[in-house]
Design a protein that fits this description.
It is built from ten helices and 43 strands. It is α+β, with helices and mostly antiparallel strands. Among the domains are: about 325 residues, 7 Propeller (Methylamine Dehydrogenase, Chain H); about 45 residues, Type 1 dockerin domain (Orthogonal Bundle), CATH 1.10.1330. Strand 3 and strand 4 form a beta hairpin. The radius of gyration is 32 Å and the shape is globular. The termini are far apart. Bound molecules: zinc ion (ZN).
């Protein structure tokens, strides 16, 4: 027991992901309280796998006593400490003091049973119990197999040894996995089924000062080291996940989280517990002053801040400082620990609903609907069910995005689902891996009311707010947000509040600011407008609608016109040649110069950037290298420059053949270390010069901000974040972009810089093919006579 105290050790308990508690969907925070008498002191050490039962200790008139807490009910167990609990809370382990301290097991209905020790040792402590309560692990004094570091002491030599105790077989030692002088071993935790035990093995090779400690796991009885090992290091498995796939602890290099054998990089806190699958890890900071929660999707966060800022529990946490998180339920939603409450140490229990797939929608909402309270004070659910088949459309293990679309009634304004299908397809194809093991994001677009009277929008957010929730709309509640049924419902307000937590709102309007500006959006946020009423095709073509919808939606997901920086946020740099995304105006709508059938990244549809190119330093461009993508990428290059001279017309530097790029358009590629300086993202002479920028390559999908509830603009009537960016693309700008000379030869289907018989055959062999082939030279979805004529007219060398 040389470096540990009994309190503060999480245990591994529980076995299934099933949680029936009716409060599970709601966040909560409760102090555990304290036994009467004695000083005021309590600690919550562990929680049962099902989240129903908390165990720990409290001070009473007779000293420290093990306690069991259930909501509003704190009882003593007849032990001095409780360190772990079975899945359903009916078996609790810890220690008693009977002369010496001894591991003990409390069973509901039959009381406390001492577990003995590894004779001739006499003292022991229990730290873990299997889900069914039948297997207990811990440490006991035992005979040392070799000399301890006090050779003057006569044998027998005693040393701590990990033990495994079973109902049928009693206590057995787990041995000493690290061989050497003064061996010791400890068992801290056990998986639900009992097959994996985690702990620590020590030796003290030189009997000098500190020992060599290794993290160890006994897997089906065989010991193996976990993580990095080294002499004079520290190491231990602090917890194993209920399903046995994740370990937390520390090794020679410091704290670790290992999931399915793979370490999570750079852990800068002390982990103490892990939920099933490694989804949530709890612990505290190195100073022991802040309880922390780690999730892959959001990194490390203060549990107190999450409870206050994300779940609005500021009042409940008044007077509290949560210092240690010590126990976690199997599904990760119930976390217990200790903190300082008005100057006194007290145990606490927090219910922290999970968002396993990190899409901003809690698992419980995705399964059962968003909770709301009806007019009779009853708890109800607002199901995320656009198709109204009675089943939730959402999946807790696969990212879902919900958007309600309403439209004004002007000509061509309302989008159809088929207009937006390419966007839905782009999200479905996103290179984002979900917890269910499949990629993609499910974009659920609810095209709701499309006959809102067309009005001008001279100050677009004012009119937007009126339409969203203020104007008479023929229903009991005003505005158009939510369905007609929602707004006529007796619990309409509560239902709309629930819907607001899950749905972004998009209005397809006519025009805004009396112009051809294509839209406006919060960044990030939940509100956006598409306004193509003044475009050549009123309301925009189907592709204009799809591209602009995805562009404005992208802003609400945190993307600027140059993508998003993981640290500094939205990148507003426009027209970066190394950024292929619908967020870049070059790619918001299809252009004649786009590569055949490529808009911008995948056949026939818009997309966010899924390839991160290398950065481009405008003051030192290396033509020989060109663009460097993180993976193979064949694409037409578009760059704007004016040769840094206001007198020059708009020019397009596109000499993309394979790898080299003639950035300054002088007809030569420099491959002897020389660099050129070109302002690559200046389109016209009226644009301000921006030489010397470093244009950052960006990948978009991994940077999306799903949870708009954390945006300062979540509340209705707030749109401050939309002020952070320049006005959106106009029709006139878009047409100017379309006229930019094609950066490749139209008709050059194989991009070999020659239009020849190969291209002619490509057209003939793909005759009547419906898109998806370079032979569709104009990208209109069909290979036909237009494409044939394009090839014939461009016959010959193209550069
Ligand atoms: Zn924009």
């Amino acid at each position: 027991m040389r470096h540990r105290i009994a309190i503060g050790f999480a245990s591994t308990v529980g076995c299934s992901m099933l949680l029936a508690s009716s409060v599970r969907g709601q966040a909560s925070f409760t102090g555990m309280g304290d036994l009467p008498g004695g000083s005021s002191f309590s600690v919550a050490n562990a929680v049962s796998g099902d989240g129903s039962t908390v165990v720990g200790l409290s001070a009473s008139a007779s000293g420290f006593e093990a306690v069991r807490w259930k909501p509003g009910n704190l009882i003593t167990l007849g032990m001095v400490d409780a360190t772990a609990v079975s899945f359903d809370g009916t078996v609790i382990v810890g220690r008693i003091i009977s002369g010496v301290q001894q591991a003990a097991r409390w069973v509901e209905g039959s009381g406390v049973q001492p577990l003995g020790s590894l004779a001739p040792g006499t003292s022991s402590v229990a730290f873990g119990v299997s889900a069914d309560g039948q297997i207990v692990v811990g440490i006991s004094t035992s005979l040392s197999p070799g000399p301890i570091c006090n050779p003057d002491a006569p044998p027998p030599w005693f040393t701590p040894q990990a033990f495994r105790w079973t109902v049928s077989g009693g206590m057995a030692g787990l041995g000493f996995p690290a061989s050497g002088a003064n061996p010791q071993s400890y068992a801290n935790c056990i998986s639900n089924d009992g097959t994996i035990i985690g702990g620590q093995a020590n030796v003290d090779s030189d009997c000098a000062n500190s020992s060599d400690a290794y993290a160890v796991a006994w897997i089906n009885g065989a010991a193996q080291f976990i993580g990095a090992t080294g002499l004079e290091g520290t190491g231990r498995v602090q917890d194993v996940s209920p399903d046995g796939v994740a370990f937390v602890g520390d090794d020679f290099n410091g704290p670790f989280i290992i999931i399915n054998g793979t370490p999570v990089g750079s852990i800068k806190f002390v982990p103490s517990g892990v939920s099933a699958g490694g989804a949530r890890v709890i612990g505290s900071n190195f100073a022991g002053s802040q309880a922390l929660l780690w999730e892959a999707s959001s990194g490390v966060r203060s549990i107190q801040e999450v409870l206050v800022n994300e779940f609005g529990l500021g009042a409940e946490l008044l007077g509290w400082t949560l210092t240690h998180a010590l126990g976690i339920s199997d599904d990760g939603s119930v976390i217990v620990g200790r903190g300082i409450h008005n100057g006194v140490t007290e145990g606490w229990v927090a219910v922290l609903p999970k968002d396993t797939d990190g899409d901003g929608l809690l698992d419980d909402w995705e399964d059962n609907g968003v909770p709301y309270t009806d007019t009779l004070g009853r708890q109800q659910r607002y199901l995320l069910d656009i198709d109204e088949d009675g089943n939730s459309d959402a999946d807790p293990y696969h990212k879902d995005l919900f958007v309600e679309v309403d439209a004004m009634d002007g000509p061509g304004l309302a989008p159809s689902l088929s207009d937006l299908a390419p966007v839905i397809d782009a999200f479905a194809s996103a290179p984002i891996l979900n917890p269910d093991g499949t990629p993609g994001i499910r974009l659920h677009v609810h095209i709701d009311e499309t006959s809102i009277g067309t009005i001008p929008m001279p100050s677009p957010w004012v009119e937007f707010d009126q339409i969203k929730s203020q104007v008479a709309s023929g229903t009991t509640l005003p505005g158009y947000f939510g369905t007609v049924d929602d707004r006529n419902h007796a619990d309409g307000s509560a239902r709309l509040d629930a819907r607001r937590k899950a749905f972004r709102y998009c209005l397809f309007a006519n025009t805004i600011l009396g112009s051809t500006i294509s839209g406006i959006a919060e960044l990030p946020g939940n509100d956006f407008i598409v306004s193509l009423g003044g475009w050549s095709t009123p309301g925009g073509t189907s592709a204009d609608k799809a591209g602009t919808f995805m562009h404005e939606l992208g802003h609400t997901l945190g993307l600027g016109h140059g993508g998003r920086d993981p640290i500094t946020g939205p990148d507003h740099t426009q027209f970066k040649p190394n950024y292929y995304s619908v967020m870049n105006y070059d790619w918001q709508t299809p252009k004649p110069w786009h590569a055949p059938n490529t808009w911008p990244l995948s056949p026939g549809r818009p997309g966010y950037s899924d390839v991160q190119f290398g950065d481009l330093d405008e003051s030192a461009l290396v033509e020989c290298t060109g663009l460097v993508a993180s993976s193979g990428f064949a694409q037409v290059l578009i760059a704007h420059n004016t040769h840094n001279s206001p007198a020059d017309p708009v020019n397009v530097a596109n000499n993309w053949t394979c790898c080299a790029i003639d950035w300054n358009d002088d007809g030569m590629i420099g491959c002897f270390g020389e660099t050129v300086a070109v302002d690559l993202n200046r389109r016209t002479n009226s644009d301000p010069h921006s030489p010397g920028e470093v244009l950052k390559g960006r990948e978009d999908w991994s940077q999306l901000i799903y949870d708009f509830k954390t945006s300062p603009d979540f509340a209705d009537g707030r749109h401050q974040t939309s002020q952070n960016q320049p006005p959106e693309l106009t029709l006139e700008e878009n047409e100017a972009l379309a006229k930019i000379l094609p950066p490749f030869c139209l008709g050059d289907t194989n991009l070999d810089r020659a239009v020849d018989v190969v291209d002619l055959l490509a057209v003939i062999n793909n005759w009547a093919a419906t898109g998806g082939t370079p032979a569709d030279t104009n990208g209109d979805g069909t290979v036909n006579v237009v494409d044939l004529l394009t090839v014939i007219n461009a016959w010959g060398q193209c550069r």
